[in-house]
Design goal:
This protein is α/β, with parallel strands linked by helices. About 35% of the residues lie in helices and about 15% in strands. The chain has two domains: about 160 residues, 3-Layer(aba) Sandwich (Rossmann fold); about 180 residues, 3-Layer(aba) Sandwich (Rossmann fold), CATH 3.40.50.720.
Length: about 375
């Protein structure tokens, strides 16, 4: 029989639950229920196994706002990948939510400020897909430099002799500009320096430790110098007000006409129509991207199908290793927060989250 009590949440057994969610067994002792986790999409079985072993996992039937607002009711945790949006309205419907987990790195789909105000911890998986995205960057860099889009299309059309019609180039020894020198940007710089002896320039608003610069033999430069001096420019910034449309017509005008621009960050960092104009005018050698301003992109997208463009469908992290790392990491962190453990990879400040929980009359998520 369910027993509904009035009172603040308390830690019962392994998980933090509300007393209204607990039940009594035949002897009258209080038992904790399994926490409920709403996942917006499926993920690698390594993570799903961890979740199922410790929680009741519910799969969202759709990711439109109305459906999510209905299905988040009663959930203790929410896990999101690339589909859906976690806004204030959704969080208000999820009155039992304690943690939102981002399966991935970028969290622009989540209203972090609203989550913090409501005492909800947000976590993500930085580092889980670093190698996968880094390799994708070099695949794109090399693919465009060797004219893979045009060459494969001509070969498929039976035009083998096209092999002599276009001349590619090596990336060895060239200059690479990295905008955003976080985990992925640094790893790209390390590989560029060690494997291809590239000259590495970077721009970042955050001071970088000297040892991180040394591993890539990288030199910090202004945003303008990175654009003007680099034969390859790769973007690795989060999407926020300061980075949205940072690569616009003015930025593209600073780039060399023999430069290749690579975007494996977020689609809205780049003004795609401006890229198409620069390619048409011969002011840019090529463009490669794994992300789009609108996903999925419309059928009449100005960059899809161009021979000087290499595009993939937001799939850089879609590797066995990347998916397993992200799924395992987010499952462990979400379950840890529900157990009252400090988050491993917090997006918002855990101390501020707990302060807001106390203000709202809720139990702290952890005691650290």
């Amino acid at each position: 029989m369910l027993v509904w009590n009035v009172g603040p949440p308390r830690s019962v057994g392994a998980f933090l639950v509300s007393e209204g969610s607990a039940r009594h067994d035949a002897s009258g002792s209080l038992m904790a229920r399994r926490p409920i986790i709403l996942s917006l999409t499926n993920m690698h079985e390594s993570g799903m196994c961890l979740l199922r072993a410790s929680a009741e996992v519910r799969m969202a039937s759709a990711v439109d706002p109305a459906t999510l607002r209905r299905e988040v009711v009663g959930a203790d945790a929410l896990i999101i990948r690339t589909g859906g949006k976690v806004d204030a309205a959704l969080l208000d419907c999820g009155k039992d939510l304690k943690v939102v987990g981002r399966h991935g790195v970028g969290y622009d789909q989540i209203d972090v400020e609203a989550a913090t105000e409501r005492g909800i911890q947000v976590v993500n998986t930085p580092g889980a897909n670093t190698e996968s995205v880094c390799e994708h960057v070099f695949a794109m860099m090399i693919g465009l430099s060797k004219h893979f889009p045009r060459m494969t299309a001509e070969l498929a059309a039976g035009n083998f002799l096209f092999r002599t019609k276009m001349i590619g180039r090596d990336i060895y020894g060239r200059t690479l500009g990295i905008v955003g020198f976080g985990r992925i940007g640094r790893r790209v710089g390390e590989v560029a320096h060690a494997a291809f002896k590239m000259t590495v320039l970077y721009n970042d608003i955050v001071p970088i430790p000297p040892e991180a610069e040394a591993r890539a033999a990288a030199r910090r430069a202004s945003f303008e110098e990175v654009l003007e001096a680099s034969e390859y420019v790769t973007l690795h910034v989060p999407l926020d007000a300061s980075t949205r449309h940072m690569i616009d017509r003015a930025a593209l005008a600073r780039m060399r006409p023999d430069a290749i621009l690579i975007n494996c960050a977020r689609g809205s960092v780049v003004v795609e129509s401006a890229v198409a104009e620069a390619l048409d005018a011969g002011r840019l050698w090529g463009y490669a991207s794994d992300v789009f301003e609108v996903e999925p992109p419309p059928a009449d997208h100005p960059l899809i199908g161009r021979p000087d463009v290499l595009l993939t469908p937001h799939s850089a992290a879609q590797t066995v290793e990347g998916l397993s790392n992200m799924a395992t990491g987010i499952a462990q962190d979400v379950l840890g927060v529900l157990r009252g453990e400090p988050p491993r990879n917090p997006v918002n400040d855990p101390s501020l989250v707990n302060a807001n929980r106390r203000r709202l009359g809720l139990a702290a998520l952890s005691s650290f």
